[in-house]
């Protein structure tokens, strides 16, 4: 059996060894999940709710063990890992409690021509869902798909990132403790190839979180078998600061949003567009906050190292490119990068075609660019190929600005908070992906609609028959004209 190792990113020390799951075993896991789905569906909403709530409770009972493992595999502070695990357990409980009402059969109007029909739309689970997860939030992010897919009545096979396989295994182990069968939710560890096998395994839907580059490969692989996909990819989230913003709060939240978790947050702030009238004040506040934070091992820093070693090169290249093109380094710079850590970097006046503006940096850096007015801020925010999240700081114009942004989620006078609200959907547009997790939309994403109509009584005129007469043709045309006139 081929294996790979997980590492502690602070020192590179080997933590554990995991199986590289080959194609046959991935297919077997999917087959077993398919077998298990009959029993899982048969348990009904109440039965599934019980299991999933028990799982949520167990995750919180073992939160110390889970967070220690997350901190080991990612290098992030224990308190961040605890927040992540708690939010994941909260989403799981919400999905468990609300799947029934969200998936309730809906009754639709049959229209005047079909007045003798009852028209209903049922929601069915898709079957087996494959989930491919990232390493930056190894429990919160994949659970956004896993929880909602399971609550909808699907079984799930999960392929965690090669950087966080232990968290994936622990999720499957804890589920097995509370579930009637471990086949309902299982974990296959491995490298990118194992993820590819999962895409090709015949799962009924594939939920992916990670880079846009890999998302396109995943979507292309899944297209060969018409497997639908949900893609949660990267972002280049803008922060818009208006002249009437609470500058202190905006600066504090922006530094946290861009630098917590070492900047490895898909919905983290990456670029700021601040009104020229308050730009100097805002920059001064950002610097005051950013100067007080530093990277370090769990227990020693405000945030940890780059979890994925190769990310360091990306961060370095974005900083160097921004400065080479005339951007100003207000705090730190090229020498802030000392692998595996990166100290806070604040850049200003960076040209809009620089890598630090166009591409996802995924490091503890922030670019602050000054704009003449909010129209320019909106224009530049929307100029990105990404469209995941955004944050707007304004006392009076927040809603108006937010309504003009091309992205999946906007926080007004707040940051990132939409991820913690279980009732709202999470996802992006453009290169940030498509499909939604979280909220009712997240449950429906893992279902398909089935239309069921029933003839309540038979009409004297039959439309769906070779016996249809010229008289009934005339009636249809006249009735449609009359209805159009009446409704128009
Ligand atoms: P990837 O997109 O390459 O990896 C995400 C997941 O996809 C991992 O589980 C990975 O497995 C798996 N995978 C890799 N190749 C394939 C394939 N051909 N078919 C199916 N699955 C595959 O992200 P990286 O970890 O390499 O990070 C690269 C960049 O992505 C980061 O710099 C960051 O910008 C962005 N990113 C965005 C995230 C987000 O939350 N939106 C999360 C993580 C990264 P394995 O890990 O074993 O290779």
TrEMBL record:
One of its GO terms (molecular function) is succinate-semialdehyde dehydrogenase (NAD+) activity. Residues 3-452 form the Aldehyde dehydrogenase domain. InterPro entries: Ald_DH/histidinol_DH, Ald_DH_C, Ald_DH_CS_GLU, Ald_DH_N, Aldehyde_DH_dom, Aldehyde_DH_NAD(P), Aldehyde_DH_Superfamily. Pfam families: Aldedh. Keywords: Oxidoreductase. GO terms for biological process: aldehyde metabolic process; gamma-aminobutyric acid catabolic process. Belongs to the aldehyde dehydrogenase family. This is Unannotated protein.
């Amino acid at each position: 059996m081929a294996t790979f190792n997980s590492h502690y990113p602070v020192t590179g020390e080997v933590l554990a060894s995991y199986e590289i799951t080959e194609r046959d075993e991935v297919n077997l896991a999917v087959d077993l999940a398919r077998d298990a789905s009959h029993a899982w569906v048969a348990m009904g909403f109440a039965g599934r709710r019980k299991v999933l709530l028990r799982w949520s409770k167990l995750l919180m009972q073992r939160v110390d063990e889970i967070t220690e493992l997350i901190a080991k595999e990612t290098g992030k502070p224990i308190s961040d890992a605890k927040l992540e695990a708690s939010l994941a357990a909260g989403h799981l409980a919400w999905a468990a409690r609300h799947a029934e009402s969200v998936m309730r059969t809906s009754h639709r109007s049959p229209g005047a021509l079909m007045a003798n029909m009852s028209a209903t739309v049922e929601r069915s689970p898709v079957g087996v869902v494959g989930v491919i997860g990232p390493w930056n939030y190894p429990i919160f992010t994949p659970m956004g798909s896993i929880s909602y897919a399971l609550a909808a009545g699907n079984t799930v096979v999960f392929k965690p990132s090669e950087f966080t396989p232990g968290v994936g295994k622990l999720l499957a182990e804890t589920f097995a403790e509370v579930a009637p069968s471990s086949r309902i939710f299982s974990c296959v560890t491995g490298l990118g190839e194992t993820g590819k096998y999962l895409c090709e395994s015949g799962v009924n839907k594939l939920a992916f979180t990670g880079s846009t580059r890999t998302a396109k490969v995943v979507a292309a692989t899944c297209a060969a078998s018409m497997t639908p996909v949900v893609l949660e990819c990267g972002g280049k989230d803008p922060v818009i600061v208006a002249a009437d913003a609470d500058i202190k709060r905006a600066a504090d939240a922006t530094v946290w949003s861009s630098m917590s978790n070492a900047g490895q947050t898909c919905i983290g702030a990456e670029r700021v567009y601040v009104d020229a009238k308050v730009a100097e004040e805002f920059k001064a506040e950002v610097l005051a906050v950013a100067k007080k934070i530093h990277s370090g091992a769990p227990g020693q820093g405000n945030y940890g190292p780059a979890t994925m070693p190769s990310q360091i090169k990306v961060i370095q290249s974005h900083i160097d490119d921004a400065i080479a093109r005339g951007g100003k380094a207000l705090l730190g710079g090229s020498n802030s990068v000392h692998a595996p850590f990166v100290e806070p970097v604040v850049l200003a006046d960076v040209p809009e075609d620089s890598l630090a503006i166009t591409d996802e940096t995924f490091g503890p850096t922030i670019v602050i660019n000054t704009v003449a007015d909010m129209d320019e801020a909106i224009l530049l925010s929307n100029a990105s190929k990404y469209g995941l999240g955004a944050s707007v700081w304004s006392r009076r114009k927040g809603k108006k600005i937010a309504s003009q942004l091309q992205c999946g989620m906007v926080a007004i006078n707040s940051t990132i908070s939409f991820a913690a609200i279980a009732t709202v959907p999470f996802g992006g547009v453009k290169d940030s992906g498509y499909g939604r997790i979280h909220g009712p939309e997240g449950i429906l994403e893992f279902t398909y609609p089935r239309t069921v109509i029933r003839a309540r009584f038979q009409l004297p005129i039959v439309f769906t028959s070779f016996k249809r007469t010229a008289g009934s043709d005339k009636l249809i045309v006249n009735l449609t004209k009359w209805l159009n006139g009446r409704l128009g």
